[in-house]
Amino acid sequence: MKSNNQAINGVLHQTKSASNYTLRRYFPSKQLAHLVEQFWLVNWNLPSGVQHVQKNLPDPNCHLTFLPNKCEFLGPVSRVYDYTMRGQNGIIGVKFKLGALTPLLPNPIDEYIDTVITFPSFLHCDLSALTHTLNQTDNDKDRVDALEQALDPLCADVQVTNVQQITTLVEQIKSNNAIYSVDDLAGQSGLSKRTLQRKFKQFIGLSPKFLIRKYRLHNALALLEQHPNDIHHLVTKLDYVDQAHLIKDFKNILAMTPGAYIHDI
């Protein structure tokens, strides 16, 4: 079981919030590599009367999460969302590869955007039994092993070529600072704008234009951790036309201004 120690993105106020919980991430086995991007486990133990509200702007992947006596499917997330931590508890999660679940979903993936489904039946595995098993284990290895065993039958339905292509396209957006528009992505990928829009709608449910803006905002959040009082630095570093465009992205996706975000750092 290999730990995933890569940089975390999409966690708001990451430096400040990290003291409230313990997060571990693990890569899947080779057998599940085209189905699962990572397994993640988070635990917290807060004093009585104390709570922590964690806000996130996650990747557009589908997730399966397990809490005591509950399993939930989370569709692609298009906006910031929060989770309130109280007392002593934890969540076990599966982050699926982009597009991997498309063959299993009863409806087009864009119908699951910002949607939560309790004990989804379309995954065709006994999620109630898996939830019980996870509740009975007390170490990460046994939990990951149980998840892999339960999810392994789904691998047969994964369309590997589609998963690889859509993952590559999103990685280009995330890692290439020269991509500011769908035209830029088309030039980098060799695909037409129409093809990109069709593939993103089919396998992610969100447009390439939206994801370009979203990951630009991820970069802004990372830079604010380093330069919390310098909005002008963000405008220059991320090549925004002006500060007004930066503020617009913050409001549209995070529902707050850069100033409000900085105030809470």
From TrEMBL:
PANTHER family on file: HTH-TYPE TRANSCRIPTIONAL ACTIVATOR RHAS, HTH-TYPE TRANSCRIPTIONAL ACTIVATOR RHAS-RELATED
Upper taxonomic lineage: Bacteria, Pseudomonadati, Pseudomonadota, Gammaproteobacteria, Alteromonadales
Pfam families, per the entry: DUF6597, HTH_18
GO molecular function: DNA-binding transcription factor activity; sequence-specific DNA binding
Protein name per its UniProtKB record: HTH araC/xylS-type domain-containing protein
Keywords assigned: DNA-binding, Transcription, Transcription regulation
Keyword check for Ribosomal protein: no
Domain HTH araC/xylS-type: 164-264
